[in-house]
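Re-running the complex after MR caught last week's input typo. The corrected sequence lines follow. Everything else is unchanged.
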Amino acid sequence: MKGIRGVLAQRNLREVQGIVEKALIEYVDERSEDPAMKYAKDILLAGGKRFRPVLGCLAYEAAGATLDDKMLRTALSAEIIHTATLVHDDIYDQAKLRRGRPTLHSQHGIAHGIISGDYLFTLGYWLGAEQGPEVIKVLAETCIGLANGELLQFDHIGDLGTSPEDYYRIIDGKTAGPIAGGCKVAGMVANADQEIVEALESFGWEVGRAFQMVDDLLDLTGNPRMGKPRGTDIYEGKMTLPIIHALTTLHGNNRENLEDVLMDFSEDRWDELIELLEVSGSIGYVRSLIDSHIQRAVESLAILPNSGQIELMIEFARKSALRST
Amino acid sequence: MKGIRGVLAQRNLREVQGIVEKALIEYVDERSEDPAMKYAKDILLAGGKRFRPVLGCLAYEAAGATLDDKMLRTALSAEIIHTATLVHDDIYDQAKLRRGRPTLHSQHGIAHGIISGDYLFTLGYWLGAEQGPEVIKVLAETCIGLANGELLQFDHIGDLGTSPEDYYRIIDGKTAGPIAGGCKVAGMVANADQEIVEALESFGWEVGRAFQMVDDLLDLTGNPRMGKPRGTDIYEGKMTLPIIHALTTLHGNNRENLEDVLMDFSEDRWDELIELLEVSGSIGYVRSLIDSHIQRAVESLAILPNSGQIELMIEFARKSALRST
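Corrected-run output:
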């Protein structure tokens, strides 16, 4: 009865999230004496999707292991490093809110934001290093990819010639890589065969790409119900896939208009922008690309034995493609 | 002939520094494909004292090992993490110059400064993790102590009631801890006995404390020949040991005057400040404390077999107490 082994087999996604959350709360408590934790714990415990650790725990059991403290700490490592990057991103993005709360640096100052982020990186690497040098190597490569993706994104700010290839390099570094790394590490800690580890990693790459593309679309549609503003990427000049696609597809007047809208954007130009993206078919194009990445994610799991955990991973992937926050 | 074993036995300090420098240049080259290295390499290769890696290499051989690639990478780990903290410190200290060159963020922007610092942390932890979880544990504890020391220093900005105990907690976290950690790790990587590892760590603590106190004095005296400005700490309201001592020692009018000078400092009040520090005997007091920490550093090495490396460590410690930059 391979399919129902493991403590997550009979759970739903919310329950897996609850297990991760509990482990995180315990770990924050374990480090509560650190002065830096006073600043860092708010954002650590402010909710969030726990996307990376939930997928990591599921991947671990899908690879044949049973969730234990070792994997939970590995999963926390990914979540804490992710949080470190959010704290630092918020500083240079000058973001005021994160997960519905004031950002760390806007509340306590830039120094405290930088230092608390560094502290979180330290905790994350430490937790990862408990699993040995192979795991830390994956974490390190992931973080180097992340830095590279962020820097590449800066290079392409306002660059209307950004290609789809540039786009993939950016999102593979900053979004898909960390998710792929989390899934890969789960397989490694589970001592799974190389081909299983690679399958889990592929799953992470594909889900991660879809995840970022959904983000790109959400920036265009926003979600007023969740208080999520739209257009942040447009104002910052970030070249998201719908924009890159429209710039490539449109010609003549439409292309000129789009360029003008992007270079001189304001709230009263939303209708103009959306209309151009409809003419170019860019929103539909990105949606179909999201579906195709999710499909490939699902397919990459085919070599793993069927299990409740695999079903949850697939459910997670599909839901992430439909999310509105 | 225990005393002359090891590749550093017949070297002088400058030669050891040269070996470290060469290893660093090679490592930077090894990572030259990383886009983040484009920004980080300037500060990495801008000189600096290489205090931590030089001491680490000497401690390694003093503990009976022979300098090898393993130790050089461990030593680079400490240096690169140190550089990461400098890049980040310079952002929130709004420093324009570091090692005589424009700071990373002042040249490339805050985002690039934060991201490059994160990248350097990653490299440092990765190099450390190659030596196993015990080494990364020491590095992580050191970095947590560093964050704690920095945060504590902020808590005491402009706090005229800062005690010598507060001061030691700050400098142990931000300066002495990383030096002690570097020496400790060298002993661990050398597979030395526990008491040798502890002796090397003690040496690091004592040298590190002296090192920070010299920094405190240099901030008061400056070094116009080296273009080093004086008074940075005073302007920022940092409570350095000479100031804490003077605030504790002076009474009546003198104490009131000192408080006034500190709270409302300007270039034309230097004479007033120095005179008060002379009346309180604070500069002499700090100098004698530096001597005593160096003395204790030297004594802590007594259990190690005498060697050229030990002599170089002692020379290094004594020179650091007399340095003018």
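None of the earlier attempt is carried over here. DSSP finds 15 helices and two strands in chain A. The interface with chain B takes residues 34-36, 39, 84-85, 88, 91-92, 109-112, 114-119, 121-123, 125-126, 129-130, 132-133, 136-137, 140, 143-144, 147-148, 150-152, 154 of chain A (CB under 8 Å).
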